[in-house]
Amino acid sequence: MLVGGLTGGIGAGKSQLAGLLSQRGAAIIDTDEIVHTLLDSQNPTRDEVIRSFPETIREGVIDRQPLAERIFNDAYARSALESILHPAVFREVEQKLQQLDQEQIVVIEVPLLLETGTDRYDVVIAIVAPASQRRDRLRELGMSIEQIDGRMASQVDDEVFRSAADVVIVNDSDRPELEHQAGELWKHLSRLNKIKNANR
């Protein structure tokens, strides 16, 4: 099994790229989806979040919007939430990996990959894009300038992603160009997977 970690700033196109790799045969594990499941279902992690952030509870449900506003504007709160969520998220990731074919190519979409460590991945993939294009994409999703700037300010610069990645995808053009880059990336991952499986 080849495990790739996919990361990049908000609005860079992580989910788009993951979708294109999925079409080519990759198994995708989305850590944001895992977080949503943890926050929306009855489990000890959700209980701990409720105890730590009671102001974000609406009628017994964690309201992710005020929670997001809090953590993107308060570094201490962000660190506290991450210390609760990250261990639970990666336990779920490990369980999902155990259920997959051991010759599969797996791509784990992790916004905070650099902050949580790169050692668990065979290859680190970063997708980057100009800040202006990222802002435009996020505005189209209905985010305000204040929300966008707060989230972007809380993340590392693209140069940090570039320096830490084994493969960099530049998403500054149109969909066909991203599809082309995804195809080339898939060829690269397939070669790495073949080598890894041959050496098992």
Overview of this protein structure:
- By secondary structure, the chain is α/β, with parallel strands linked by helices.
- 58% of the residues lie in helices and 14% in strands.
- The strands form 2 sheets. Strands 2-5-1-6-7 form a 5-stranded parallel beta sheet, sandwiched between helices.
- A hairpin with a 2-residue loop joins strand 3 and strand 4.
- Helix 2 crosses helix 5, helix 3 runs antiparallel to helix 5 and helix 4 packs across helix 5 (75-98).
- The longest helix is centred in the middle third of the chain and has 24 residues, at 75-98.
Feature tags:
200 residues; alpha/beta; Rossmann fold; 10 helices; 58% helix
Briefly characterize the structure.
With 200 residues, the protein is an alpha/beta fold. Helix content is 58%, strand content 14%.
Straight-line distance between termini: 10 Å
**Looking at this structure, what is the CATH superfamily?**
P-loop containing nucleotide triphosphate hydrolases
> Which fold name fills CATH's third level, the topology?
Rossmann fold
Q: What overall geometry do the principal axes of the alpha carbons give?
A: globular
Helix content: 55-70%
Widest sheet: strand order? 2-5-1-6-7
Under the CATH scheme, which class? Answer: Alpha Beta
Topology summary:
Layout: E1 2-7, H1 14-23, E2 27-30, H2 31-40, H3 44-52, E3 57-58, E4 61-62, H4 64-73, H5 75-98, E5 105-109, H6 113-116, E6 123-128, H7 131-140, H8 145-153, H9 158-164, E7 167-170, H10 175-198
Parallel strand pairs: 1-5, 1-6, 2-5, 6-7
Antiparallel strand pairs: 3-4
Helix pairs in contact: 2-5, 3-5, 4-5
